[in-house]
Structures are given as C-alpha cells and as structure tokens.
Amino acid sequence: MNDLLTGVVFDFLIVFVRVSSAVMLIPGFSASGVPPMVRIGLSLALTTMIAPLVAPGLPAMPSQPATLIAMILLQIVIGLSIGWLTQAVLVSLPMAGQAISYQIGLSSVLLPSTELGANSTLLSSLFNLILPVLFFGTSLIMLPLLSLTNSFHLIPVDLLAHTGDQRIASGLIRLVVRTVGSEFVVAIQIAAPFLVIGMIWQAGLGLMARAAPQLQIFFVAAPLQILAGLVLLAVFLGAILGTWQHAAGAMLMHYVRL
C-alpha cells in the first residue's frame, strides 16, 4: 500500500513539475496580469487530467535522491522548452505588427516611442492584446496541451538513463531552430503586402525628392502614408489574422504529431 501511494505521489509530482514549467511560458497563462494562485490552480488541474493518461509509461521512483533531483530538473527544462516553443510560434503575430507599424508610418526606427519602449510599436502592442483572444477563443489552446501530454511519450521522464538522450537533445535543438525560422517566415508572410507597398512608396518619395528638392517631402507624405496604411490595415486585417491562425495552428499541430 505504501509503495502504491508513493508511486502515485511520484507520478503526480513529475507530471506537475513539467506542466507547471510549461504554464509559466505559454502565452495567456504567463501574462503578468494572471495571479500566481491562478497559475498554480491551472497547473494542478492540468496535472490531474494528464497524470492518469501518462502514468503507465512513467518509471518507478528512483531510490537515490540525486537521481530524483536530476529527474525533476530535467522536467523543468522540458516544460520550459515546450512553453517557449509555443510562445515562439504565437509571437509571430506581434512581430508582423511591428514590421507593419514601421511601414505605414505609425512608428520610426530612429524615433522609438518613450511610452511603449524602444523595442515595441503601436500595432505590435495591439496584436499582443489580440493574441490571447485568438488563442483562447479558438482551438489553438488545445494544441499546446496535447503537445504537453504527448511529450511524456516522446521525451521519457528518465531521459538521462536512456542511451539515446543525445539524439533526443539534438532533435530538440533542431526543432528550436526550425521554430524560430518558421516564426520569421510567418511574420514576413503576414506583413508582405505592407512591405512591398512600403518599398514602392519609399521609392516614389525618393523620386519626388529628387525632382523637387525644395519641397519637404516627408511632411507632405507622412499624413498620406499613415492614412493609406490604416486603410490597408482595415482591408487586410481579417486576412492577417486568418493567415496567422492557420500558420500557428499548422506549426502547433506539427508538435502534436511528433
């Protein structure tokens, strides 16, 4: 009876450590406005659902304290990696908003906003606010949770005791590199219409400045650039959000099927 109780507590502890580590970085759950007690309660609820599903594949509790500590630290690293990968996929939307904001004249690289910060723009902050709504309002929220459950089958809890741990570690590194690359690709795809139109606009301004050097082109063109950019943003906003949702869902589904 004691061995059974010890096994149940150990299984719950191991799953809780990995789940809570992931919750710390998954967008929405990791927001600064979410109280710590809510995160702990959410982690306990997810652990209660996931632990019975993965318990048959978990190893027995190690007899050596050092082995147990190493196993717990490994779960923290794995959980943080899963949360970071999810965040890297979803942050492509604010990244695209940053590029769009520069192109339509709402922000300037040379004159960063003192209120939003040097590394943030108006549209990037707006898309950061929209991100949790899209994440929790659609089926995207289920994909990181499924990936977290499947991770117990893909990455063993006692990874250090396996001979193939180096292969799994190298695969995780390749996954991180591919995720970051896909993040930039999706951001560029979303902002592509604004990047193309922005280059054409800047080329036209350069020709106008060359033809009429005495005219202050910047002060004349800046209001038109902002107005035209806002109109284009209103036209393409639905396509932007739809493209991002499809791309983010495809990348997160890839993690589920690993």
From TrEMBL:
Cellular compartment(s): Cell membrane
Keyword annotations of the record: Cell membrane, Cell projection, Cilium, Flagellum, Membrane, Transmembrane, Transmembrane helix
Transmembrane intervals: 12-31, 37-55, 67-85, 123-146, 184-205, 217-244
Main location: membrane
Keyword DNA damage included in the entry's annotation: no
Membrane topology: Multi-pass membrane protein
One GO BP: protein targeting
Secretion signal, residue range per the UniProt entry: none
One GO location term (cellular component): plasma membrane
Family, similarity comment: Belongs to the FliR/MopE/SpaR family.
PANTHER family xref list: FLAGELLAR BIOSYNTHETIC PROTEIN FLIR (PTHR30065)
Name under which the protein is recorded: Flagellar biosynthetic protein FliR
Species per Swiss-Prot/TrEMBL record: Acidiphilium acidophilum (Thiobacillus acidophilus)
Classification lineage: Bacteria, Pseudomonadati, Pseudomonadota, Alphaproteobacteria, Acetobacterales
